[in-house]
Write the structure tokens for this entry.
Amino acid sequence: MKLVYFSWVRERVGKTQEDIAPPTGVMTVADLIGWLAARGEEYAYAFENPKIIRAAIDRTHVPPETAIAGAREIAFFPPMTGG
Amino acid sequence: MTVRLQREDFDAGREAALLTHGRTDIGAVVTFTGICRGREAAGEIAAMTLEHYPGMAEAEIARHVEEAKSRWPLLGVTVIHRYGRLVPGDNIVLVVTTSAHRDAAFAAAEFLMDYLKTKAPFWKLEERAGETRWVEAKQSDGAAADRWRGKGRNEAAE
């Protein structure tokens, strides 16, 4: 699946997007955040406070307990500041 | 309904005229324009860059326009949100709503702005004195959006 990052999550990870294949035990958005955070310093920094990370699956906002099975694109970003 | 994301500036008067031209059923048009401020509590701002999530931003705004139309008897809605680097005085966002009466037009415009602030995938990066800083989401904006929860058709915010 494709991951995309925005704002300071993008800056901390150091990538705008990447393709990943998480292990089978990674079932939810919260699991994915935990798995990503263990991938390296830059990920640990980006996801150090999972409570403030927002997620979208296939361009729709989702809460952390959402299953990721079948997702094509998962986005991670901080709380939005538009308008 | 028109939803546009663009780097270019917009003309609020022209957008309002496009919605009202040639119609006699519209009794109220509300236009809201959000503008880049040059001064915040933390000091002068040199510029602000708006990052967005292409594809999701349009879809998310369109969803909220549909919700506004289901809550109030609107005759037209236009939302334009700019992205890229803006300087103080530049327009950022435009919401135009039209209805037969003012209550619906005012309420829907306010509803749409409250949701744009907290749910539309945009992030503001401020530049000041050579430093850049991501703007933090305000709790007051979250509270402004939350007050619309569960409100039915034709009900305005209290």
About this structure: The radius of gyration of chain B is 16 Å. The domain at 2-146 of chain B is CATH 3.90.1170.40 (Aldehyde Oxidoreductase; domain 3).
